[in-house]
Q: What sequence folds into this?
């Protein structure tokens, strides 16, 4: 049963109303972060982001109507996954995790992460990244053997520069934030062609998350054509994520997005129940191995 009637305050979200449509049962928010001062940030992280705990996130989860969710290790913690693991233990079987490790990680460490609910590893090629492009291929082979995926957060320019490496990777690949394709002409960027090369290999998933990163409008309506192209031409390979608590906006002291409004846009762009079920339920269940 969905809970859109709940009108509770949500931190780090400028929600003005609840979503105007009910999500399918077992819908999944495939991208959010947790910050907890009990766990120290990496020494080179200077943003000093405030706490955004699992309890804080639960208000958003209920307000939007999700039953499942995926916790993504933020760059602030580097390869120290203790905050992620604590949140996964608290969340239980309705949650999965995407950790950050290097190619030096041991098999026993990967085993422990898997037992805790981790099903993928994230490479973030922003400032202060703990991972490098050279680590992708050796680590991808190990992840593929476990049925895990490799997730990448990078700009469209960076993704295009990594084209040959990405096309060679084994196993499932997830790209964050709609490939960070820039407005106003996202489909003119060469990374748009790369997206379809990877999708046509049958192993790439696209997160329709963080639309506000590239949008020039509060209601992200300028992302419509781009998002619809993935929803309706790659229905089997799309995921949705809130990107809560929107750390890049917090650190830049910018206005928080209206997560309910953005979700409503996505819901209507999906346009029919079959696409919505794939986006919110079936695709996440397959990739993250929800029972």
A:
């Amino acid at each position: 049963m969905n809970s859109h009637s709940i009108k509770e305050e949500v931190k780090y979200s400028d929600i003005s109303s609840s979503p105007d449509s009910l999500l399918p049962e077992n819908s999944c928010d495939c991208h959010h972060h947790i910050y907890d001062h009990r766990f120290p940030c990496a020494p080179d992280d200077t943003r000093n982001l405030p706490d955004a705990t699992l309890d804080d996130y639960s208000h958003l989860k209920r307000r939007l109507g999700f039953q499942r969710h995926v916790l993504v290790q933020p760059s602030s913690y580097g390869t120290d996954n203790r905050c992620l693991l604590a949140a996964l233990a608290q969340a239980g079987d309705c949650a999965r995790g995407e950790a950050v490790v290097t190619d030096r990680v041991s098999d026993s460490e990967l085993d422990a992460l898997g037992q805790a609910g981790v099903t993928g590893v994230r490479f973030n090629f922003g400032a202060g990244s703990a991972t490098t492009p050279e680590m992708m291929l050796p680590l991808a082979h190990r992840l593929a053997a476990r049925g895990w995926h490799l997730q990448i957060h990078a700009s469209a320019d960076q993704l295009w520069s990594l084209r040959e490496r990405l096309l060679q990777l084994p196993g499932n690949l997830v790209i964050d934030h709609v490939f960070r394709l820039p407005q106003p002409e996202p489909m003119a960027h060469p990374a748009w062609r790369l997206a379809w090369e990877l999708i046509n290999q049958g192993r790439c998933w696209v997160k329709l998350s963080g639309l506000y990163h590239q949008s020039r409008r509060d209601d992200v309506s300028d992302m419509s054509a781009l998002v619809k192209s993935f929803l309706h031409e790659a229905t089997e390979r799309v995921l949705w994520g809130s990107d809560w608590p929107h750390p890049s906006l917090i650190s830049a002291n910018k206005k928080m997005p209206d997560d309910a409004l953005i979700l409503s846009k996505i819901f209507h762009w999906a346009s029919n129940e079959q696409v919505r079920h794939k986006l919110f339920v079936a695709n996440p269940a397959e990739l993250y191995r929800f029972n």
About this structure: The radius of gyration is 18 Å. Residues 273-288 form the longest helix (16 residues).
